[in-house]
Amino acid sequence: MGTVVVCVVLVGAVGLAIRSMVRDKRNGKSIHCGGDCKHCGGHCH
Question: Model's pTM, two decimal places?
Answer without folding.
Answer: 0.59
